[in-house]
Write a structure and sequence with these properties.
Helices cover 78% and strands 0% of the residues. With 240 residues, the protein is an all-alpha fold. The chain folds into two domains: 70 residues, no CATH class; 152 residues, no CATH class. It starts with 6 loop residues before the first helix and ends with a helix.
């Protein structure tokens, strides 16, 4: 199918109202599609929205750079949205305080495992050094991951792709994996989702209740802070 070749559309594509007006309905469609299919994790709303938006960009011949620039308000709103995660955390303060050992163990295992398994597999497959460094922060939320990638010599654009893929795979496969392991504790489910698949996984964790969502938010936050500090420090200690 040939992209639309209309100068008028090319001008409209640069307007924030057009980009936002295309993205928000795409997400609403993705949500409704998942609900109509009994909440199938395969039809993850983020994944479906990406596919819909990419298809629209291809159909209209709109450059990705144009879309990102005109839809920057959505990216801006990610900050306040992440800040709102403090609300479920506050509501679960007592349970979180009583779960200090569980949280510490989850971070001690999940943080290095998320880096070592991904980087190790890529290394075994012959990945280049830049690819390995770009892959290392893939379990962090995008804003932190890009900053860490720049600090350690990775490619931020490649890191962003890995982050999105990690989040989608975690949201789709994470709950089923936890069930297969015979784990029923929603705190562990939440921590696994937050540490392993950042914001996208956290959104999925909230579908299992406020406790899972709160622990996922906490896991995502602590993993982001610790990795942002420890990963660059570890890289600098490696022999040249």
């Amino acid at each position: 199918m040939r992209p639309l070749d209309a100068p008028a559309w090319q001008q409209l594509a640069g307007l924030p109202s057009v980009a936002i007006g295309a993205t928000v309905p795409a997400y609403v469609i993705a949500l409704r599609l998942q609900r109509r299919c009994a909440g199938s994790p395969i039809l993850n709303p983020t994944l479906v929205t990406i596919l819909l938006v990419v298809g629209l960009l291809q159909l209209t011949g709109t450059r990705y750079e144009t879309y990102v620039r005109s839809a920057s308000f959505i990216h801006f709103m990610l900050g306040p949205a992440v800040g709102l995660l403090a609300v479920p955390l506050f509501r679960q303060t007592a349970l979180i305080r009583a779960s200090g050992v569980v949280i510490a163990i989850a971070l001690a295992i999940g943080l290095p495992a998320g880096i070592v398994t991904a980087v190790g597999l890529a290394w075994l497959l012959g990945g280049h050094a830049e690819t390995l460094l770009s892959l290392a922060p893939k379990s962090l939320t995008t804003g932190i991951a890009i900053g860490v990638s720049q600090a350690i010599g990775g490619v931020p654009a490649l890191t962003a792709v890995f982050v999105i893929l990690t989040g989608i795979i975690g949201a789709v496969c994470g709950p089923a994996t936890v069930r297969l392991m015979g784990i029923s504790d929603v705190r562990i489910l939440g921590l696994a989702m937050g540490i392993g698949s950042h914001g996208i996984g956290t959104a999925r964790a909230f579908q299992f209740g406020d406790v899972a969502g709160a622990f996922s938010s906490l896991g995502m936050s602590l993993n982001g802070v610790l990795t942002a500090v420890l990963l660059p420090l570890f890289i600098t200690l490696l022999p040249a």
